[in-house]
Amino acid sequence: EVQLVESGGGLVQPGRSLRLSCAASGFTFDDYAMHWVRQAPGKGLEWVSGISWNSGSIGYADSVKGRFTISRDNAKNSLYLQMNSLRAEDTALYYCAKGGSSTNFDYWGQGTLVTVSS
Amino acid sequence: QSALTQPRSVSGSPGQSVTISCTGTSSDVGGYNYVSWYQQHPGKAPKLMIYDVSKRPSGVPDRFSGSKSGNTASLTISGLQAEDEADYYCCSYAGSYTLGFGGGTKLTVL
């Protein structure tokens, strides 16, 4: 059974940093791309960042480019999101999602909540 | 990166069919056959319903179908059931290893 468990969320002041983690199990982690998708309270889904199986391809939404860094450790079956210079508008539930057979998200975690506020 | 355009809400009675549109540009929806659709019930994580425009993952009822014409993709749900009431999001590849979602459509089953 595929499981994705996010951690690292919390309350942080504007301008500070936070690192999210996603522990994956139930599939061959290094065979698949992985993504972060966020959802602000009461709002829609927003793709944040994605990374290919071997970290050779990485993409970011314009809203986070230059502030967020995605990475993965295939030996630890883990995905990460380093978030710097956080803003109030980054407040959201952050989902870890497994890339499917092509460019889609076939499994999702339950999310970790990030709140940026002074 | 602009959000794809979806209607804010659609509705239908049990047994009827509804179609949700997702309009982008030639740089996303129109340029790639990589449109996917997600169902999200309140308080739950999204669920993949359609990928690669019209393919259905295992376990998704064949009442759900997808299509694309030009820069607009569509999700059709036939034989509406009460449990189909949810938010639906389209997503498209937009090149350079980036993706974008639509704003979401709330489906109400009357």
Structure description:
The complex is a heterodimer of chains A (118) and B (110). Helix content of chain A is 0%, strand content 52%. With 118 residues, chain A is an all-beta fold. In chain A, the strands form 2 sheets. In chain A, strands 2, 4, 5, 6, 9, 10 and 11 form a 7-stranded mixed beta sheet that branches. Chain A has a 4-stranded antiparallel beta sheet with strand order 1-3-8-7, with no helix packed on it. In chain A, a hairpin with a 5-residue loop joins strand 9 and strand 10. The mean pLDDT of chain A is 97. With 110 residues, chain B is mostly beta strands. In chain B, the strands form 2 sheets. In chain B, strands 1, 3, 4, 7, 8 and 9 form a 6-stranded mixed beta sheet that branches. Chain B starts with 8 loop residues before the first strand and ends with a strand. The model of chain B has no long low-confidence stretch (mean pLDDT 96). At the A-B interface, strand 5, strand 6 and strand 10 of A face strand 3, strand 7 and strand 8 of B.
Helix content of chain A: under 10%
Name the shape of chain B in a single word: globular
Q: Which regions of chain A are unreliable across 5 or more consecutive residues at pLDDT < 50?
A: none
Number of strands of chain A: 11
Mean pLDDT level of chain A: 97
Taking all Cα atoms into account, the compactness measure Rg of chain A is 13 Å
Structure classification of chain A: mainly beta
Q: Which sheet architecture does the biggest sheet of chain B show? A: 6 strands, mixed
Strand share of the residues of chain A? over 45%
In which range does the helix fraction of chain B lie? Answer: under 10%
Q: Indicate the structural class of chain B.
A: mainly beta
